[in-house]
Amino acid sequence: MFDALTERLSGVFDKLTGRGALSEKDVDAALREIRVALLEADVALPVVKDFVKTVKERAVGEDVIRAVAPGQQVIKIVHDALVGLLGGEGEPEGLSLTGEPPIVILMAGLQGSGKTTTSAKLARRIQTRDKKKVLLASLDTRRPAAMEQLQQMAEQAEAGFLPIVQGQGAVDIAKRAVQAGRLQGYDVVILDTAGRTSIDEDLMAEAKAISDVSNPRETLLVADALTGQDAVETARRFNERLPLTGLVLTRMDGDGRGGAALSMRHVTGLPIKFVGVSEKVDGLDAFDAKRMAGRILGRGDIVALVEKAAEEVDQEKAERLARKMAKGKFDMDDLADQLNQLKKMGGLGGIMGLLPGMNKKMQAQAAAAGMDDNLLKQQTAIISSMTKEERRKPELIKASRRKRIAAGAGVGVPEVNKLLKMHRQMADMMKKVGKKGPKGLLSGFTP
Ligand code: GDP
């Protein structure tokens, strides 16, 4: 899967990294090619549009990291956007299995999607990794063969299997399974519901009725990644009727174009929890957005390089500030720097709480000094209408200079006074906290 997409993107990236400077035109051209590559990989159009928009916005808004080539930075931005599209950074979302046993997992999906195979794979995974006892039950009353298939696979998975009772309806089987799970000491009961070749009202009504009586903790939709946009549409339809908690994409080992995998999360808002990677009972992997993005882009080296360079830039800034603070210096340029960082991080409120050595009173002082987001822009404007000298030695700024600065920034003198006061208070705080050890403070101040 993804081979064609990987190759196309690789071509785009080669062009980007082949040159020193990038103009907006270069970036636009690259984005156009990325757009075509995604569409050819069968990614849904709204998803492609949003993706390209995100990358463009970040490419324009991002600070330039001098240590890396602009093309490399663009690759990192595309990488991050792809990780976001697939579900974001962080540990893969597993299953919620704690609480009063038995925990019920309901499996839904069309016939042939790999639902039965996935049920058995999941049972095996939960037994071996989570060390929990699993009971499998087939609710496919119309297809005796499907029931037998699950029984065989349950054996392979070394999981329990609910005996088949001829003539019993799906809802009753679900009730019996939960009861058997409770009486026989199972931690988890997996219900493999019936599938149809297409979505119909009967199928949905039955699944809903089973869900209502079994109160599942997880309801997973199994979808075949090879069916592309059909899989996405199926997921959307099921999601309208059932309280789905996640998706499993099967046949990721096949050579589809991958569009379904890339569109799923965005279209349904549901996390992809697992992917099927073989027909065997151990062929189920936890889905990891970062790893998947890395595989698709195949530029892990560049991504790591840019991450490291970005850290170093922040580190340098932090160290520079630390040296100044240690000397009890915190001038207007530093304040402007901090305001910029705050803007990037979405305001001061949250940051204040992060600062070690910052007590409630100091936080209240900061709040009283008017450090809210709306003011950030205005404050930056005031600082930029100061002269270099004034920025370095704010104590020079007396009445007449205040008037000039206010006029330059298009504000009143009281606003300038407020900023000067805020700077003084911050400088005081810095001095106090600085003595306690600047490192801790800075870790709070840099993103
Ligand atoms: P169900 O009708 O939804 O229960 O589908 P099945 O579980 O019977 O699966 C249909 C076919 O797909 C079977 O031949 C499975 O072995 C195969 N299959 C299921 N998941 C995967 C997968 O992740 N990779 C591959 N290669 N085959 C799979």
From TrEMBL:
Subcellular location: Cell inner membrane; Cytoplasm
Enzyme class: hydrolase
Key words of the record: Cytoplasm, GTP-binding, Hydrolase, Nucleotide-binding, Ribonucleoprotein, RNA-binding, Signal recognition particle
InterPro entries given in the database record: AAA+_ATPase, P-loop_NTPase, Signal_recog_part_SRP54_M_sf, Signal_recog_particl_SRP54_hlx, Signal_recog_particle_SRP54_M, SRP, SRP54, SRP54_GTPase_dom
Sites where the protein binds GTP: 109-116, 192-196, 250-253
Listed EC numbers: 3.6.5.4
Reaction it catalyzes: GTP + H2O = GDP + phosphate + H(+)
Domain SRP54-type proteins GTP-binding: residue ranges: 271-284
Annotated membrane topology: Peripheral membrane protein
SMART domains per record: AAA, SRP54, SRP54_N
HAMAP family listed in its UniProt record: SRP54
Function: Involved in targeting and insertion of nascent membrane proteins into the cytoplasmic membrane. Binds to the hydrophobic signal sequence of the ribosome-nascent chain (RNC) as it emerges from the ribosomes. The SRP-RNC complex is then targeted to the cytoplasmic membrane where it interacts with the SRP receptor FtsY. Interaction with FtsY leads to the transfer of the RNC complex to the Sec translocase for insertion into the membrane, the hydrolysis of GTP by both Ffh and FtsY, and the dissociation of the SRP-FtsY complex into the individual components.
NCBIfam families hit by this protein: ffh
Record text about domains: Composed of three domains: the N-terminal N domain, which is responsible for interactions with the ribosome, the central G domain, which binds GTP, and the C-terminal M domain, which binds the RNA and the signal sequence of the RNC.
PANTHER family in alphabetical order: SIGNAL RECOGNITION PARTICLE 54K PROTEIN SRP54, SIGNAL RECOGNITION PARTICLE SUBUNIT SRP54
Protein family per UniProt: Belongs to the GTP-binding SRP family. SRP54 subfamily.
Assembly behavior: Part of the signal recognition particle protein translocation system, which is composed of SRP and FtsY. SRP is a ribonucleoprotein composed of Ffh and a 4.5S RNA molecule.
Annotated protein name in UniProt: Signal recognition particle protein
